[in-house]
Design goal:
about 100 residues, 2 domains
Length: about 100
């Protein structure tokens, strides 16, 4: 499992615990998750969320719009078409995922 896959896996687990209403010890016991490992990833993901990563992006002076979409070309060659209705935090989430 790549680091990115681990990050996504543990983000989903932690979200499930937070949305489910069980305490961390009860959640870990119910899902057979090591308590220390859960806390390790909880701390790691909180620290990651607080980091700001800047990547150079080249954006044409006239952005390409396809109806209600904006097209973003990332330095790694990825081309993303995102709806113009996305919030800033949703755009950040997508850009992180596409890195």
């Amino acid at each position: 499992m790549t680091q990115s896959e681990k990050h996504q896996h543990w983000t989903a687990i932690i979200s499930k615990q937070q949305e489910g209403g069980l305490s961390i010890p009860d959640f870990c016991k119910k899902h057979d998750i090591n308590y220390a490992t859960f806390h390790y990833w909880l701390k790691k993901l909180k620290n990651t969320d607080n980091e700001q990563v800047a990547h150079q992006m080249v954006i044409n002076s006239q952005p390409s719009f396809c109806g209600e979409m904006v097209v973003v070309h990332l330095p790694n060659g990825v081309r993303a078409e995102l709806p113009t209705s996305l919030s800033f935090s949703q755009i950040q989430t997508w850009l992180k995922a596409l890195q």
